[in-house]
Amino acid sequence: MTSIQFQRKILSLQDNMFHFALALTANRDDAKDLLQETTLRALNNKDKFVNNTNFKAWVLTIMRNIFINDYRKMVCNQTVIDKTENLYHLNLPQDSGFETPESSLGIQDITKAINTLNKGMKDPFSMLIAGYKYDEIAEELDLPLGTVKNRIFLARKTLQKILTK
């Protein structure tokens, strides 16, 4: 296939390529970018096209592969890797779009519920909320680590019951 024939074939497929790009990206501007990138890549690799194969399938495969590779790059770039010692960044509150207990209940309601807990559950739970780690709470209250974890677990369960009424 000559260079001119190759260019004519690829130009004749521009509408089909655009519709396929639009189906992949669901955005007109991104589809135009993908169409342009695919056309450029196909023209640069015309020597790799084997005659007597489906030209349209070859071009659309290039487009699909570009889309997949770009998507993977985007996902990789958006991945947060927390290299802090105590995974501080992963423990930051994230806006999930769901209503949080703090937004659905007033702070007074939550504080009142915490104050109804017995001292054995209230102290470790309050320290956890204040930012202490389990081992720090155990050391401060002179309790075994398992006891601290159990009391915090029970405090959470009790608070869930109180606050869902």
Give descriptors for this structure.
Arc Repressor Mutant, subunit A, 9 helices, mainly alpha, 0% strand
Brief description of this entry?
With 165 residues, the protein is an all-alpha fold. It has helices at 3-12, 14-25, 28-44, 55-78, 101-104, 107-115, 119-130, 134-141, 145-163.
Question: Can you describe this structure?
Answer:
It is a single chain. The mean pLDDT is 84. 70% of the residues lie in helices and 0% in strands. It is rod-shaped and about 85 Å long. The N and C termini lie far apart (76 Å). With 165 residues, the chain is an all-alpha fold. Helix 3 crosses helix 4 and helix 8 (134-141) packs across helix 9 (145-163). The chain has 2 domains: 3-78, Rna Polymerase Sigma Factor, Chain: A (Orthogonal Bundle); 98-163, Arc Repressor Mutant, subunit A.
Write the layout of secondary structure elements.
Layout: H1 3-12, H2 14-25, H3 28-44, H4 55-78, H5 101-104, H6 107-115, H7 119-130, H8 134-141, H9 145-163
Helix pairs in contact: 2-3, 2-4, 3-4, 6-9, 7-8, 7-9, 8-9
> Might you state the CATH topology name of the largest domain?
Rna Polymerase Sigma Factor, Chain: A
CATH class of the largest domain: Mainly Alpha
Strand content: under 5%
How far apart the termini lie comes to 76 Å
> Could you tell me the radius of gyration in angstroms?
30 Å
The number of helical segments is: 9
**Rounded average pLDDT:** 84
Structural class: mainly alpha
**Structural domains: how many:** 2
CATH homologous superfamily (4th level) name of the largest domain: RNA polymerase sigma factor, region 2, helix turn helix motif
Largest sheet: none
The strand count comes to 0
Share of residues in helices: 55-70%
Q: What's the CATH architecture of the largest domain?
A: Orthogonal Bundle
- SSE order, as H and E? HHHHHHHHH
Give the low-confidence spans. none
Shape estimate: rod-shaped
